[in-house]
Amino acid sequence: MRKTYRYKELSFAIADDDDVNFTVEFVSDGNIGQTVINVPGSNDPEIEDSGTKFIGKGKDLRGETTICVTDVANLLPDEDEIRIRFIVNGQLIIEHQNLKSEEERPLIILSIKFPKS
Amino acid sequence: MIKIIVGIIIIASPFISGAQEKLNKLKAPSSPASSILGLQPTTVLSPKSYRSLETALFSNFVNGSGNTVIPNDFSLEFTPYWTKNHGLSIQEYLYPKSSLDQFIRNSSFSIASTQKFILGDSTSTNGLSFGYRTSFYFGNEKDREEIDINTKKLRDNKRILANLAAISNGLIENKKVTNQLEFIDKMKNNIFKAINESGIFDNIKDAEAITNSIITEIALLPQLDINAPDKFLNGVDSIIGNKLSSEKIFNEYKAYIKERYGFSVDFSYAFLLNFPTNQFEYSFVPQQSFWITPSYRFEDNLSFLKILGVLRYERYQLGYYKKFFANTQMYENNIDYGFSVSTEFDRFSLNFELVGRKSNSNIPSGTTDTNGNELFRKEKNYDIQYIGSFNYNLTDEIVISYNLGNRFDPITNSKNTLVSMLSLNFGFGTPSKNDIDLEK
């Protein structure tokens, strides 16, 4: 069974009318991955590899926990680790790192709350 | 022989028992430095094994008393570029923008040493060698096709899995379900939708069938504990991944990247440094080599086959050999040319090489022309080498290699052309404290 890395109880305070932009940054070389951010409503934003997506206004993200899932794999024979930064509005909320000897295609799950600032 | 096998097992056991710390599968070493020092008898250097650091400890693990000892011969190959992260995307990695990028990324440096570099009078001395190599790959249309197909398959797969994991985790984290039945009920439509919309199946019936099969297996999982749901959720992800062949898709792509279709060429250089009196201040560079190794990986039905050519120029310093190998016939300039064929099946690989050597030297004739200039006579020689190699991965980190064949006339004991060499190679990735703990 492949390894799942869970980061729970993450929190980012934000005002009601502020935009929330979510960024995934692949730091190590040669990752290939898909990130889905499960927000209230039917249109979950998706990020292919590295990138930034608007996921809603602060007030849209209240109440529920926002789940962000990155399914990633590293195909490079030269690379020894998988390192990914997760950023909200330019602020690092978590940096994931694992050795490929531990898992080459990890599933990374973030549970984030967006309380009122 | 039994002692050697016992020694191998003793040394290999920490690696075998520590199999949970799996490292990348290793290939037999073939660094320029180990080749020029004679630690590997083959002339054709196979492409390097894509590791930022590669080490090789060669045989001699057991001494005459049966005790395990540190080997006399050692080699290490180091690729500086890959010790740092650059945030390269897979596309940037597979299709470098310029030849300069390839040159830098593939540049590796090697060093090898032996404490048993034997001179003509049987004196055992220290030999050190240093090597450099880089390689260039020239893809073709078939390669691009293969990469595109594999990328699409992997991306589609990841899109489905990430979507479903986001939904399933969201359902439980936000308390939208209270038990396994409610979970299955809410997930069923989402699973079908994600699979059907991905287009990985040609018809809706296949998408329905795979959805039903996933749901059946989820129902068989141990009961969902809503307060500790991680194990259950991991099980769900695992079922979906297995049904959609995630691991197979990943492994096929990874294997292809290691051996891409098309043409590549390696350039290598190495030189040997000898300390004939074992004093640091007194050294010679008796031998230098420059290799060009073009290789081609066939497509489709012949994809198991790889053909490598070799063109090597080797230069010997005649003054050194005259002094320390008094009774040997050496040639200053040597050109080797030939090819090798290799194939790989799971844990073992086979290689055969056939290489010709053309040598010549300009020897002072001891006479002068009418203007008083020294005259030289040219001496020539031809030789041939053919060697078969067998490599077997004992584990992903340990390769045992055996070479058998006929080599070029060696410097000393020129009739002794038989090659029968067993070597053992341990591999480490970029090591960290946690990686290399031999006591585990």
Fold topology:
The complex is a heterodimer of chains A (117) and B (440).
Chain A: E1 4-11, E2 19-26, E3 31-38, E4 46-48, E5 51-57, E6 66-74, E7 81-88, E8 91-99, E9 107-113
Chain B: H1 2-17, H2 32-36, E1 53-58, E2 73-78, H3 90-94, H4 99-106, E3 108-118, E4 124-138, H5 141-173, H6 180-198, H7 204-219, H8 230-243, H9 246-258, E5 262-275, E6 284-297, E7 305-316, H10 318-324, E8 333-345, E9 348-368, E10 374-395, E11 398-406, E12 418-426
Antiparallel strand pairs in B: 1-2, 2-3, 3-4, 4-5, 5-6, 6-7, 7-8, 8-9, 9-10, 10-11, 11-12
Shape of chain B: elongated
Proportion of β residues of chain A? over 45%
How many β strands of chain A by DSSP? 9
Number of domains of chain B: 2
Kindly state the percentage of residues in helix of chain B: 25-40%
Q: What's the multimeric state? A: heterodimer
- Rg of chain A, please? 14 Å
Unreliable stretches covering 5 or more consecutive residues of chain A = none
Helices and strands of chain B, in order, run as: HHEEHHEEHHHHHEEEHEEEEE
Q: Cα distance, first to last residue of chain A? A: 40 Å
CATH fold label of chain A: Lipoxygenase-1
